[in-house]
Specification:
This protein has 157 residues and is of the alpha+beta class. 31% of the residues lie in helices and 17% in strands. The protein contains three helices and six strands; from the N terminus they run H-H-E-E-E-E-E-E-H. The strands form three sheets. A two-stranded antiparallel ribbon has the order 1-4.
């Protein structure tokens, strides 16, 4: 009986540690999205733990909880696409957080991404891109790459 109690305690401790790690990494539960959206970006400021959607952890810092949440852009839960020939299902989600710069608190998020399922009309091909912008023209650079890389891949196919 003591062994069972010890095992239960260890399991609870492991679960708590995993939850803490997930919160530190910005991970949380997600659920399948409905509909067939190819691109879904939005702020998830009103989602709360327990409703099986993305959780936004917040710890004390220079931003309020609201400001922190407003800096996030996430998918509406986990999206999925199935490869017809193999039957494999790819599940994906995304989250992007605008950085905090004390000298420039309203600096835009310089990162961009793209999701193209059935790329070039082929249900076996999918393009997932992340474009990390830096510097004075970081936003424009990442958006340019986001827009041009898929087109360049299509023109070289």
């Amino acid at each position: 009986q003591q062994q069972q109690q010890q095992q239960q305690q260890q399991q609870q401790q492991q679960q708590q540690q995993q939850q803490q790690q997930q919160q530190q990494m910005g991970c949380g539960g997600s659920k399948e999205a409905t509909g067939s959206r190819k691109y879904a970006g939005r702020h998830n400021a009103d989602r709360h733990p327990g409703d099986d959607t993305y959780q936004v952890p917040y710890t004390a810092g220079p931003l309020t909880a609201r400001e922190y949440k407003e800096r996030l852009v996430t998918s509406e839960g986990t999206q999925s696409v199935t490869l017809p020939r193999s039957g494999y299902t790819i599940r994906y989600a995304y989250v992007s957080q605008r950085g905090y710069y004390p000298d420039s608190p309203n600096k835009p998020n310089q990162d961009s991404f793209c999701v193209h399922t059935s790329f070039n009309g082929d249900p076996e091909q999918h393009l997932f891109g992340v474009f990390d912008g830096h510097g004075d023209c970081g936003t424009e650079s990442s958006q340019f790459a986001r827009d041009k890389v898929p087109l360049n891949l299509l023109s070289s196919a």
